[in-house]
Amino acid sequence: MQLDEFRRHAHDLVDWMADYLDRVEALPVRPRVTPGRIAEQLPAAAPESGEAMDVILEDFRSIVLPGMTHWQHPRFFAYFQANSSPPSVLAEMLTATLAAQCMSWETSPAATELEERMMVWLRQMIGLPAEFVGSIQDTASTATLCAIVAARERATGFAGSESGLSGVGGLTAYCSAEAHVSVEKDVKIAGIGVANLRKIPVDDDQAMVAAELDRAVAADVAAGLKPVCVVAALGTTGAAGFDSLRDVGRVCRRHDVWLHVDAAWAGSALLLPEMRWMIDGVEQADSFVFNPHKWLLTNFDCSAFFVRDPATLRRTFEILPEYMKTREGLTVTNYRDWGIQLGRRFRALKLWFVIRHYGVEGLRNTIRAHIEWAQELATVIDDAEDFELLRRPVLSLLCFRYRPAGVADAALDALNERLLRAANDSGRIYVTHTRLRGVYAIRFVVGQTATERRHVQEAWEVVREVARGLKR
Fold first, then answer.
1. Is residue 4 assigned to a domain?
2. Fewer CB within 10 Å: N-end or C-end of the chain?
3. What are 287-329's pLDDT values in tens digits?
4. Does residue 112 share a domain with residue 74?
């Protein structure tokens, strides 16, 4: 492609991007397609000859777009949002144009030093102790894996990396029963094994019971096993449970176990001084992760991973073949040694754009508004005679169910599943579900960049309308 053609298409695409963001609210949140519908419109083999970009873009509009779930839709209330913003999108355009591979300082000095400074900004913004330093990972799943592997190496005197795990004995890890499933995946990859992951019971507030954790760790030690890591959760995915870092941290210090804190979603709310209760006791943590790409208006992927002891992390992951040696040596940061990936994207640029454009106060205002609207919705649900609030929002996540008079408790799960499917199939909203104390609950999260109070109110009207139209 010649640059003049690139310029023409780029201008057209920017116009399309702005139009999309302007009109996404009018689109169905979730596509009305059946499995295989997109694939059947695609050729079975790649074209031998090149095709015109106009034709490719038309296929994008006619084939790809109708099959997309619109995560930037203001009535997207499912999962945790992977939100975005115009300054973040602009930065991503520049990142794609520069196309830098940022594995070391020498391969892109500005990328490394901007990332270092962004991690300082984020640490200050969320109130972490000054001794935490960090790097930008792709996701919290990867960051948690880095923490578990580093914890494994500290616990085994780096024997795992040097000679393998066969000679180090049985290793164990711990998390709450409500922890994100990525913890289970990570202990598989780290060689600890799912059978050695202890899922600790939670209390009525969905928080890990520290006394049960203490008993589990002590029992494993008595059995000759080696506890490696505890993963504490701030804002569990199912229903926003918050583990007590102070109580869990005391257990970890008593048994000399690495404490990793997974605050993937809720960590962004630490920008609000009134939410710093979440990190009471964080001085006992060894590592901490949160995702600006969930609630800080920054495009996926961008996960902020902090550690108290970077030397252990670097020793776990560093590798230095001759062709990677540079004259700067240890006087600079080479982020390839801070995690799994050798090759790294320039993720810090979009974070820099977002923080500078909105300012910390602008970001705080957005998060406060989302929390306020979730609280308002909870009050409305509480007052509704035929709905039941199952989990009040601690931040902006709440859980409820439809409970009309005359319907037996045994039939409520199926009724609410039908409600959720019908509401999502309408294309007007998108919500997901969880189970609370064994019952099926509709899970609702406010957090999309473009969401306004009216969108939350409209979503509630959709839920009520669909619910009252169901045959019982």
1. no
2. N
3. 999 999 999 999 999 999 999 999 999 999 998 777 788 888 7
4. no
